[in-house]
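User: Good morning. I'm curious how pyridoxal-5'-phosphate would be positioned relative to this chain. Could you predict the structure with it bound?
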Amino acid sequence: MAIVQFEHRPGILDLGWGHPRPSLLPVAEWAAAGSEALQAYGWQALTYGHSAGPAPLVDWLAAHVGDASPEQTFVTAGASHGLALVTPLLARPGDVVLVDSPTYHLAFPILRDAGVTLGPAPADEHGVLPAEVAKIPAAFLYLVPTFGNPTGRSLPLDRRRELVELGLPIVEDDTYRELFYGDAPPPALWRLGHNVVRLGSFAKTVAPGLRLGWINAAPSLITRLTRLGYVHSGGGVNHSVAMTMARFGASGAYAKHLGVVRERYREQRDALTIGPAPDGGWFTWLRLPSGVEASTLLPVAERHGVSFVPGSAFYVNGDNGHDHVRLSFSHLSPEELTEAARRLNAAISSVVGH
Ligand SMILES: Cc1ncc(COP(=O)(O)O)c(C=O)c1O
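Assistant: Good morning! Here's the predicted structure, ligand included:
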């Protein structure tokens, strides 16, 4: 049996994985925070947790994130879990849920698990088009407006304002907000409007294996979350890890670690010398030369020792994005990324030359 999701393919520099670089995971710092949490909270760190998440983490989050109160916060097992939890509260089976085009492809099965029908939100190269979205009846819109997966781009401020003014419920996946490599990103939709549920995660800033994140929403929705049957039976989500995260945050280890990973991921972004350089997040969205299709390029690229995810994976009907590929610079070292870019350029040239 394997231990981790990642599978190494010998000889291939794989730009397909949106996983952290293993050497950037804070093993020693996390161990120290775990031990501190046990010393500080004793048995309380190991028993059933409070339904919305333990106060030390919820209070730290409210202060750290700065735009949500403890009453607007529910601790989850990550952004994926947050999406799985809120979807049935915002939509009924058969309802239409709009998704940005392109957007995070692994959100599609999470949404479909709730029996909803997915529809592409009209978009251009800058992101969703609010006036067009307004024309389509839907239970809610899901999008990753900040350093998005797969494009790395952020929705411009004027569109953010127009979008929240529509009144359509929005689920904002804000997973990458803190991973910026220059200026801070535009304000969250959550901050601009009332009808927004925001999903946060520690998967990218600390470690995905924590399975820890949060939801910001109106207190009425937070109350509905705390009343879910499994929360009533099992207590707050992932309580002991949440208590360790509270120490990791309060001790200053989080801020220090964030500074380090921002620096390292910026170096990795710069080392991948192909595709536009995003201002944050883990991905770049490469447009292929005219006439080159991602599906044709993929086997050629793998013969050159490099891989990626074809762009069509990020469109709900798979009917678009054939001329794009998503490249992740999160997982490999700067040296490997530079070599991966060289191999990919060679693969593209060989296809264009044909
Ligand atoms: C946009 C987006 N949302 C959610 C996730 C998953 O987050 P978590 O590990 O917190 O479930 C990812 C990971 O790739 C992502 O890119």
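The chain has a mean pLDDT of 97. Residues 18, 78-80, 104, 144, 149, 173, 175, 201, 203, 208, 213 surround pyridoxal-5'-phosphate (CB under 6 Å).
Let me know if you'd like a different ligand tried.
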